[in-house]
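Morning!

This is the sequence you dropped in the shared folder:
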Amino acid sequence: MITKITALNRLFLIQSLRHHHLRRQLLHDGPDTVEELLDRHLVKRDKKDSEDNELLTRQRLTSTRREALSLYRDIIRATRFFMWPDSRGVLWRDVLRENARKEFEDARFEKDPEIVTQLLIGGRDAVQSALDKLVEKQKQQIEKERNESNRR
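The structure's back. Tokens below.
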């Protein structure tokens, strides 16, 4: 009798476990391992996405490279107007060109697009500011010369 009850209990327990397992699987239906979890929830990149991202990155780098070269050329052009010597007797043109070259060389291998953009914007602002100050000083100089010639 005890064996019959034990066998029935075992059978009932097995059926309960199967039912519970099926119900849990239907409710949970989740991954059993970390690998399955990652595989199910991580976005898989296909080759096309990778190629598109690479093309976009290449275009962005080409664009910023073009902008950097344009800025460098503008600096070289702008320094033509700085033809007076500094306290050491070196032309400001040469000092400015040397400093620009050093700045560009220091930032040559910068990969962060935000930093590159900040550098380009800062460079453009610096060139514009220097040219504006130069124009203002030249206007003052012309005005001063006119006033001196009117006094005579």
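Headline: The chain has five helices and no strands.

More detail when I'm at my desk.
O.
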